[in-house]
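Predict the 3D structure for this chain.
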Amino acid sequence: MRVSQCVGCTKLACPDVKHDCYVVPGINVKPETVSIVMVSEAAPEKADDYYYAKGNPLFEQTTVQAFNDAGANVSSVKDIVNRGVYLTTAVKCAKKDYGIQTDTIHECSFLLEKELSLFPNVKALMLMGDVAIKSLNYIAQRAGEKRVIPAGSTYKIRGQKYSFRGIRAFPSYLQAGPSFFIEKSKRRMIAEDIAAALRLVA
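Done. Predicted structure below.
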């Protein structure tokens, strides 16, 4: 299955993102083999930096390092995918500015909801940053469910048990992009959260 053939935005109307950078994962994946879905913030400005791009994309560099920090011993996104991990973004276009408007996150949460529904055996949802957390909360609230992750600073709420329709949800920090190499304390917490998710599905 190619997710990009099942999920797509026909509007591309959000004013605070770059629509020419729109991307949904186009890799071929067997849905039943996916046990972890890792949701980061938004698509990169450069298509060459996306998770599944050829060469040495930035999102691959930082995510591989994050998994290695967690003791996973991987060398590529392919290795991560082979461990049953599917990588995607909450917002499918690149940011124009530092932040993303709540209306944009809400609109794109419909795509993420459809994306998540494709994988029947997911046991862990890695929510890498505030945008991913908000997106999942929108999905839950739209269905009349309570928010999955409570309000509050990530460092205060992470480490507790949260669940979304029987799936364990891990609020964490953004692992995709250049800031990963700068903030060492967040990098340590990201590694701890990834390790916990990997233990859950082992």
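Strands lie at 17-18, 36-42, 85-91, 94-95, 124-128, 162-164, 167-172.
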